[in-house]
Write a structure and sequence with these properties.
The complex is a heterodimer. Chain A is mainly beta. In chain A, strand 8 (about 150) and strand 9 form a beta hairpin. Chain A has helices at about 10-20, 30-40; strands at about 65, 70, 90, 110-115, 120-125, 125-130, 140, 150, 160-165, 180-185, 190-195, 205-210, 215-220, 230-235, 245-250, 255, 265, 280-285, 290, 300, 305-310, 310-320, 325-330, 335-345, 350-355, 360-365, 370-375, 380-385, 395-400, 405-410, 415-420, 430. Chain B is about 70% helix and about 0% strand. By secondary structure, chain B is mainly alpha-helical. Chain B contains seven helices and no strands. Chain B starts with 10 loop residues before the first helix and ends with a helix. The chains are: A mainly beta, B mainly alpha.
Chain lengths: ~425, ~170
């Protein structure tokens, strides 16, 4: 029996606990461990038989709506150059064409998103999948297997941003020497053309947004330790040529171009505490000048970029007390006011506006909970998404009130992510049946 | 209705970033896992599993600034999973009439026993607070309680440990 006695103060206890737990720590070689992890992850996996779990719809307990409050409880500056980029050069691509009829595979994908014109896209390795019918059928093309950002407009037109020839490794360090290229396809990924972006960069995060087929924007958002400013590049010819149009001291990576003039950039939730980015900034001259949107200083981060239905905009914002607040704009984004709020006691996950009145938020606590916010943010309800794995989703999007898609790990970690499709507004989900790439 | 995809890293960036992350966080992940599962071998396995899981999910990390809470959360899940498996293993061992393994040298047996008697979430809270130095707000986001709930829970656990360790 030990002669130690109980902790008389917290410091003594902390020291004793730390000494005890230090007993489990052994020296490891970080490179060796990472290489072992990478090698294991690269090993081919046996086909995963994933059985969707049928769960009766459960009304979430503890949903209160009191005075509009919902309580839910379960649980370098970029090289300043405005010159036209170098000539476009075709990028060699693996030959991949849509096969007819395709043999179908499982739902495993690495990334997914909504297309600009009401579709869904997904990436598995170097295969790009696009659906324009709510996930029922898919076309396939090729895509860079490690893009920083992807934007898909429709079944034919898509853009990615990748490292260009001559770049150093992107370690996130201000000493990196990075060159970026925007790649575009006009045939659903059958062929790609790569256009280098003028400038040398470091510790910047590239994000693409194309509001239409001609106009597109590339935001180079400042990372935490970057000494550079954020920069905005634009194209008016579908990505054939790019030019830098503006810089700003700091623009958040939650970026969307509503049209060829109005751009919004906001803070991501996880960096809100360090005030790295303004909660929401906007440009109404195509990225040339930026100013902060005047909203309450207690609001610290966007849960997703602003969404516009005509001139009406809506954006969900998180405040310092983790209360979700819905802001609306009726003047195209100049002024925003709060219309509803709710405190979600679970773990807030990705969300998507189904239409101008309905916002669906997927919990990331593994409970499969879907939170439905209507009534301008004053009515909060929820249900369990039947058929989903019990894992934290990373993305959700809706094509219309019924059809949508969700990206989530397929099982206990480590597990690949899978794409799930709903045809009833998120009540039931089934694994996407993607053709072979 | 348009939403950006989750962040993607180049393979080189991912490897370099992970090496830095391992160098910075691995020891703390092992400590946290040990606090939760109470077994050094399992703790080492849990930390390694956490890195494996983190590697697989790196594309889903939307913001690299959130990496520490993300790693802690994955590690806690892995530690709980391995501890559950270990409990099943111990049942099988009992059926085979095998003697439990002696405590490893250097273990604070009283503290280890007292920790084992705590619910898993309380062990996690104690480790996050007293080993990793997280604030109540940060711990709250890890364990799904409110910050005030964390503070209340932490005070109760400390009082209990104080009592138990004085009684030995």
């Amino acid at each position: 029996m030990s002669e130690r006695r109980g902790p008389d103060n917290e410091r003594e206890f902390a020291e004793r606990l730390r000494a005890h737990l230090d007993g489990a720590v052994r020296h490891i070689d970080a490179e060796e461990l990472v290489d072992a992890v990478a090698a294991k992850a690269a090993r081919p996996r046996a086909a995963r038989a994933w059985a969707p779990v049928a769960i009766a719809t459960v009304v979430l307990a503890g949903i209160l709506t009191v005075a509009g409050i919902g309580l839910l409880s379960p649980g370098p500056s970029p090289t300043p150059s405005a010159s036209v980029p170098a000539n476009a050069t075709p990028t060699p691509q693996p030959s991949k064409t849509a096969s007819t009829p395709p043999s179908l595979t499982g739902p495993e994908v690495e990334a997914a998103g909504s297309t600009g014109l009401g579709g869904i896209w997904a990436r598995r390795g170097s295969t790009l999948y696009i659906s324009t019918d709510g996930g029922t059928s898919w076309t396939t093309g090729s895509i860079d297997p490690a893009p920083y950002s992807v934007d898909v407009l429709d079944a034919n037109r898509a853009w990615t941003v990748t490292l260009a020839t001559g770049s150093s490794k992107d370690t996130g360090s201000p000493t990196d020497v990075l060159h970026f290229a925007v790649n575009r396809t006009r045939d659903g990924g059958q062929s790609w053309t790569s256009v280098p972006i003028d400038g040398t960069f470091a510790a910047l995060r590239p994000v693409l947004s194309f509001p239409d087929a001609l106009h597109g924007f590339l935001l180079l958002s400042r990372e935490r330790f970057a000494t550079q400013q954020s920069a905005v590049y634009r194209t008016d010819d579908g990505g054939a040529t790019w030019r830098m149009v503006g810089t700003a001291p700091s623009l958040g990576p939650q970026f969307v171009a509503v049209d060829s003039l109005r751009l919004f950039a906001g803070a991501a939730e996880s960096a809100a505490a360090v005030k790295l980015w303004p909660t929401l900034a906007w440009s109404q001259d195509g990225g040339a000048t930026w100013r902060d949107v005047q909203i309450s200083t207690s609001m610290t981060a966007l849960l997703q970029p602003p969404t516009f239905f005509g001139s009406d905009g809506v954006v969900p914002v998180l405040d310092e007390q983790s209360t979700v607040r819905l802001l609306r704009s009726h003047d195209g984004g100049a002024a925003w006011s709060e219309v509803g709020r709710g405190l979600y006691l679970g773990q807030i996950g990705p969300g998507a506006f189904v239409d101008r009145e309905q916002w669906i938020l997927a919990s990331r606590d593994g409970s499969r909970s879907m939170v439905v916010i209507t009534g301008d943010g004053t009515k909060w309800g929820g249900f369990i998404g039947s058929g989903l794995p019990s894992a934290a989703p990373s993305w959700i999007g809706f094509v219309d009130a019924n059809h949508g898609a969700l990206l989530a790990p397929l099982g206990d970690t480590p597990a690949p992510s899978g794409l799930f499709i709903t045809q009833d507004g998120g009540r039931t989900w089934s694994p996407a049946r993607l053709p072979h790439g | 209705m348009r939403t950006s995809e989750a962040a993607d890293w180049s393979p080189e960036a991912r490897r370099a970033t992970f090496i830095r992350l391992v160098e910075t966080h691995h020891s703390d992940l092992v400590r946290l896992a040990y606090a939760i599962c109470g077994d050094r071998e399992l703790a080492a396995d849990a930390a390694q599993s956490a890195w494996q899981a983190a590697w697989s999910q790196a594309d889903q990390l939307r913001d690299r600034q959130s990496v520490e809470p993300w790693l802690l959360s994955i590690t806690a899940n892995q530690a709980r999973r391995l501890a559950r498996r270990n409990r099943l293993g111990r049942l099988l061992e009992l059926r085979a009439f095998r003697a439990p393994a002696p405590e490893a040298p250097g273990v604070d047996v009283d503290l280890a026993a007292a920790l084992r008697r705590l619910p898993g979430r309380d062990r996690q809270i104690i480790a996050l607070r007293f080993v990793l130095g997280l604030s109540s707000e940060e711990i709250a986001s890890q364990v799904g309680l409110s910050p005030s709930g964390v503070r209340v829970r932490q005070a109760r656990v400390l009082a209990r440990l104080r009592q138990e360790l004085r009684d030995v």
